[in-house]
Amino acid sequence: MTATVGLDVGGTKLLAVVLDDSGAVLAAGRADTPRAGPRRAGVSQAGPGRAGARGGGEAGPAGAVLVQALVELALRVAGGASADISAVGVGVPGLVDPRGVLRFAPNLPAGEGVDFSSALRAGVGVSTIAVGNDATCAALGELTYGAASGLSDVLVVTLGTGIGGGVVVNGEILRGANGFAGEIGHVVVDPGGPACSCGQRGCWERYASGSGLARLAREAALGGRIDSVVRLAGGDPEAVRPEHVTAAAASGDQAAEAVMDELGWWIALGVANLVSVLDPELVVLGGGLMAAGDLVLTPTRRAFGELLQAAHERPAVGIVAAGLGENAGAVGAAVMARAEQPEVHRQ
Amino acid sequence: MTATVGLDVGGTKLLAVVLDDSGAVLAAGRADTPRAGPRRAGVSQAGPGRAGARGGGEAGPAGAVLVQALVELALRVAGGASADISAVGVGVPGLVDPRGVLRFAPNLPAGEGVDFSSALRAGVGVSTIAVGNDATCAALGELTYGAASGLSDVLVVTLGTGIGGGVVVNGEILRGANGFAGEIGHVVVDPGGPACSCGQRGCWERYASGSGLARLAREAALGGRIDSVVRLAGGDPEAVRPEHVTAAAASGDQAAEAVMDELGWWIALGVANLVSVLDPELVVLGGGLMAAGDLVLTPTRRAFGELLQAAHERPAVGIVAAGLGENAGAVGAAVMARAEQPEVHRQ
Lengths: 347, 347
Description:
The structure is a homodimer. Chain A is an alpha/beta fold. Helix content of chain A is 37%, strand content 20%. The first copy, chain A, is globular and about 55 Å long. The first copy, chain A, starts with a strand and ends in an 8-residue tail after the last helix.
């Protein structure tokens, strides 16, 4: 039996699946994303600054470390599945050019400039490699085997370290003129807001992602609004992490629930904006933050009802969790790779 | 020769064209939009409030006045063209349901609840009536005969009293699940911003439309930043209108140019957000505000270059004025109506 490896590169973790032609996950695995070193070859983090470090340079040592970790993970999951691996797909967080090079990745600086296509071909020893945006892969996974299966117009939002997006229009993934469509994390929702790693201020992902929750939690901790959560984190407001807030909210801590409400409001604001633009029939939320499940979904749905323009004149737009859970991106990457093999059976 | 009437209903003016099958405009006309009276039948403006006045009620007396003005304009332009009118299309600013009823129109309260399809069929005496969103019509016009002709992925933004949008994906108009796609004017870009007629705060059109320019100009006038423009308006800061600002900017008044720069920054912010989501190859700006031409385009293009995420990693995205000028919406409405006639020749 032939199968396909799908990889999902996140800001904090790497996920992998082996997918057979029926869509069954034969094996799955994960690893931590290596901590970033220098952005690119010859450019230290204290170097010439963000703008100077950009513009088509080579991948640096941190890129090589990242690729090595990905290759090891791919070989490990492939070894765990009794199948011939015919193709490898990888979803990466940012803008990918047609050659498979990651051009812009505020949440994965080490990956900028990396030619994932060549690196995986050499490292894994498989000739068919497909590289795409991670959230676009998640949308493809959800469209093929998940919550969006059979639907025509869907918005998929991945809430991870940052925010990614995949848009389904007429049953197909929206690619745009350059394949860059769906870059929703850096939509500015508050021009006076906090600085973003992309260079702008007040991007949506500064509020509504995993790192956004970390920021909201830190502000609440330093502001004395979640003392019980600070105690849970050992007493230091600076030590409060998103998982402390979700754990406290899960146990009914009202102050922690208020932070989750704030998070849900910001998620809903961006989702409502995108629903006005795209008019989807369903919104699917995925990514690591959705491990918190209803703690995220419930306040998001409540605020969405208040924020959506002309909600009373529209059919209801559902907001649901990704059907494939955190594997949506990796499954979609495998589906993407499968589609690049002309002779493989497709459903 | 048969021809089609296209109507464009704006917050301040009504535009009409007679279009022949080759796309030639045989006649054109305009009228002021009647000033709004009561929103709907039996509901005075001092009545039960916005929410209570909504939800599927009948059109009120102001709706009848609006329809009458539209019918008169349609008959007038039709009379000016020596052609048989086979269909009438109308673009209206807001959400239109499949029956041709305007459901939600913050910039045209008198039109809410109006069944434009039935009213125009009866008033003009033509059986084929097509009703659509005004900016979607503008996009269809630009795609068929204007700046977007032959292109695949385009964003059309109409800057009028409010902001409308039309999105071209793979050479076709993006409709969404309910035909409501492209409602970009009420994307929130500043949650702490001024209240919008839609019920939210900080919608894009509060900054980047004709009414947005009026607000920016008023703030600048009251803040003492454009005294020369205030003198142009007769000395009263409250009397400053957008046309005073554009006239002063056209003559090189630097304070007025600063207001246009501010307007351009806000236009660019929203356009950059939408380019991140949609990845179009071209952005077309239309609507009444574009009568100011380069006074709007130049500062918008400048700010767009600074605001677009990863601009250095993308092919350049052009921002151009609508090829059909202010008639884009009316021409597109005629094209829409023509397409609803199965026996009519289409190019």
